[in-house]
Amino acid sequence: MKTFLLIGSVVLGGLVGLLALALGLTLLAGLIAFVVMGVRSPSKLTMLLRMAWANLLASRINLVIGGLIAGGTVVFVVLGSLVSSLNDSMARSVVGSVAGNIQIYSAKSKDDVALYGNMGGEPDLTAMTTFPAIKEALEKHPNVKTVVPMGVSGAVITPGNVVDRALERLRALYRAKQGDVVPALKDVPADELAQRIDAQKSHVRQIIKVLNADAQKAAAILADKALEPEVAQALARVSSDEFWTGFDADPFDALEFLENNIAPQVTDAQMLFLRYLGTDLDRFQDSFDRMEIIDGARVPNGQRGFLIAKFLYEEQMKLKNARRLDKINTARTLNERKIATDEELQRFVKENRSQTRDIVLQLDAIKTKTAVELLQAELGVAETDLSALLTRFFDMTDETFDRRYAFFYEKLAPLVELYRVRVGDTLTIKAFSRGGAIQSVNVKVYGTFAFKGLEKSPLAGATSLMDLMSFRDLYGYLTADKLEELKEIKQATGAKEISRDNAEAELFGGDSQATIVAEATPGIIDADKELTGAARKLRNEDLIRRVYTSEEINSGVVLNAAVVLKDPSKTARTLEELRELSDREGLGLKAVSWQQAAGLLGQIITGFSIILLLSVLVIFFVAGIVINNAMMMATMQRTAMIGTLRAIGAQRALVLGMVLLEAVTLGFVFGLGGIALGALVVQLFHAIGIPAWNDYAYFFFSGPKLRPDLSPTNLGVAIGIIFGVTYVATLVPAFIATRVSPLRAMQADT
């Protein structure tokens, strides 16, 4: 009801505004036209205004012309407002999530910065090795609020499957039993450790039982699905009582056998691609206010850490059955889609029914018994096989979905691990360095994050956040930790560091037995001569706990940086001033707007603007031709009247003014009517909102709905185009009218 009242008030206001504008600006149009033509007589102005207003709807030709003008104006106002609003929304998405108002990077870079990647992968950017000086110089600009260092890269991780995780837990329990320091188990008594070991061994045996059953079913259905002899022998061995009776005699050997022969048979551990942004997390989290922590907490100031994008976390790391249920629930509640009629939702239901093993493998004997009892009570059946019960449970309809969805999260979800990577886990990330070597770092996952209004956007949710020190390690840059490590190695080995200037003398003269360490390129590791693990003294645990100062974080190299402005409305001017600053002080920077830094995404808005411009040109070009032809016809039809006016003493200026004023009045009245109608449509769109039809539209709309606003610039341009097209299209017919002689007009009348 409120929506209808709002729409009604908008409509009424629009009609009143239309009448006021039409009457008021018609007089203004006449005044402008007569000032241009040099006519100053108030009486003539009044007379011709009355004639223009009387003839406004006197001819069908005028209605055709007016309709074309009004229609073109409506299209221009609505499309212009949509494009302008899309541009503003896109700016909020890009600027508020990762780009800042301006992006800077080295002018020596082979590629341009592309924050969302490009067709050939990540752009090849040359590192800025003097970032502290660059940052200091830029932040002196009066409109620069802060400069946030950045670098984008990607890596493939394998979180491990359910067997890997079960065996890792069992290994940790045995390590704790032998007296090793396992932080999560350091306070667990010995008798409880023994109980946990027995329970975990029971879980592993349950997994093996499920794998055996799956293998037998596959062999019975498809002959070519029989297990290879080595795999069959391994399953037979770990299924025997002898294997488990002697397990405690050498548990680590038995665990190694399970890891090498049984874990690979479970294929739920597909590799995940992680695209991450290395940055000063403290500065980033303070500068981009749309960022909010969803799970866990922000990375402590100055520490290494990792924040996973919430969209990626839900889409790629969540239990697939649970993720499909979430998608069905969202589609039904927000988009009012039905399982009975929607093929995609039916596919989700079918996949959940057939893919239950991920849940079955996670449950040990005790949890399996609990799950069976819960499902029996919920479904009202006596079935005892967990897989069969889950298949029946996931066979959901529109009538049963809401209850079973709530049941899943209330009863079943606590029994399983919903996510393959959990907040608090230490994630091992391996990636190729800039020199081609494989680097790895261990970083703690502190939480998940999203940008307000962009929670469902794959574009905003595809990039996770990593601390800048870990990013430099992966990318192959010499960090403070590596410098410290290198110093200790040189002291331990007695190596001597020399400069380039003295290299020849040191290498080929003097003591030939001297140990030499060449001077490295400042700030960059030679990946081919990277130090091996045997020489390392610093441990990953120490790096995770270490707190870095702001100077340490910002003193290393970076690939690019986001410049956040105090007044975003001055972006264009500030951009030019920063370019001039770079040239003047020799900073060697490229500075680009957020739109250019967004790459293909930023060009989409430019494409929309070009389409709008072409549409307007076509519409008004056709309108100009039609108006010209129509006015020619109208002039020919009024030859007798024009001749009579000329016979009674009307000057050519008066005839010219009459024709032009009628055309301008027609253009302004119908043009303003089109503007008012277009404004009304835009206001209706704003009140109701244009819903994002898919996840990508969330990014373009900067939220679930686009609410377009009227642009004063578009309205001004629309008025100017209407006046110009109408005036120019009428000039030729108007001058023809001034050439009509009284004698010819009277002859035509007889």
Give structural notes.
It is elongated, with a radius of gyration of 37 Å. Residues 1-39 and 506-539 have low confidence and may be disordered. The chain is of the alpha+beta class and 750 residues long. It contains 30 helices and 14 strands. It is 59% helix and 11% strand. Among the domains are: 2-84 and 613-749, no CATH class; 162-265; 320-418, no CATH class. Strand 9 (496-497), helix 20 and strand 10 form a beta-alpha-beta unit. The strands form 3 sheets. Strands 1, 2, 3, 4, 5, 6, 7, 8, 11 and 12 form a 10-stranded mixed beta sheet that branches. The protein has a two-stranded parallel sheet with strand order 9-10. It has a two-stranded antiparallel sheet with strand order 13-14.
